[in-house]
Specification:
single chain, mainly beta, 6-stranded antiparallel sheet
């Protein structure tokens, strides 16, 4: 990044069919997304340190590694605790990396970085992010490629805060076609048990969000032909936003964005498709952990579109 670049990195604008997205190179971040001038995600300024991971790409893990500790390949590892209040390693290693721009076309941007082998994650993985817009919305694909000589644990996902329209999360209606929710401890959000959705977590039909608090991972999606799951968030006027993702993302984290900073508080709904569950580095394949063989790659894609 040059010294005169905005704090969020170099800025890339892509547009097509009424959609305009602004990508910031730090974290390959979706900084803004608009359809016919209407915000579909909570934006932030280019010359601003990105707040609350808005729009960042998360890799080589999304969500948390509990206590920053895990075992893989017969070795124990300890990551830096980047969520100090809860003592976890949060949202991977590339969210604050300034990605290299490989291609920038009117409707498409391609960015890459390489995770260097390091203490806690002694694996070398190239991360390639493609953002593309067309009449069906913004499509993002993240590819992890193991360029090292040992197998590497891998997971990825995005961190957008969706906006349905005017107001806050309390004013919108959510359709979340998931049959199971991962329960967590109240204080540290440590995963405990996977259970059928119940009470405030059952939003399989259109449900007013209201004052409910959610910061949980969901799975067991009702998927259309081709394996696509679709989450819909709408405002009272019928406008809204859709997040759709394929079977490579069997999980989604949903958070009502409750925050002590008033301007952040419930300003958007975090909807984060994930290739694996929270703490998958410890839970393993049963919770979706991907193992990248040397030279191996893994793709994950999702789409944000207007209603």
């Amino acid at each position: 990044m040059s010294n005169d670049a905005p704090l969020s990195g170099s800025q890339l604008t892509i547009a097509a069919a009424g959609y305009t997205a602004e990508i910031a190179t730090v974290g390959a971040t979706l900084r803004t997304l608009r359809h016919d001038g209407r915000d579909l995600v909570v934006p932030f300024d280019a010359d601003e340190v990105r707040p609350v991971f808005r729009g960042a790409v998360l890799a080589p893990w999304p969500n948390r590694v509990v206590d920053g500790r895990y075992s893989f390949g017969g070795e124990d590892h300890e990551l830096a605790l980047t969520e100090p209040r809860r003592s976890h390693a949060l949202h991977g290693l590339v969210a604050w990396t300034d990605f290299v721009v490989v291609a920038h076309e009117p409707d498409r941007a391609v960015l890459t970085t390489t995770i260097a082998a390091q203490f806690g994650y002694p694996y070398r993985v190239e991360v390639r992010v493609v953002h593309r817009v067309d009449a069906d919305g913004l499509h993002t694909t993240v590819t992890g490629t193991n360029t090292g000589d040992a197998a590497a644990p891998w997971g990825t996902g995005p961190h957008p805060y969706l906006r349905a329209g005017e107001g806050t999360v309390d004013d919108w209606t959510l359709t979340l076609p998931a049959a199971e929710v991962l329960e967590v401890t109240e204080d540290r959000l440590v995963p405990t048990a996977l259970v059928p959705v119940h009470d405030e977590f059952d939003m399989r039909t259109p449900t007013p969000v209201g004052p409910r608090f959610v910061d949980h991972a969901f799975t067991g999606f009702d998927r259309a032909d081709g394996g696509t799951a679709t989450i819909v968030l709408t405002a009272a006027d019928g406008h809204g936003v859709v997040m759709a993702f394929g079977p490579e993302c069997p999980w989604v984290q949903v958070h009502t964005a409750d925050h002590v900073v008033p301007e952040y508080h419930r300003a958007g709904l975090a909807v984060e498709p994930m290739t694996c569950a929270p703490d998958a580095f410890n839970a393993g394949a049963d919770r979706g952990l991907v193992v990248l063989a040397p030279g191996g790659s893994h793709d994950a894609s999702w789409t944000i579109a207007a209603v």
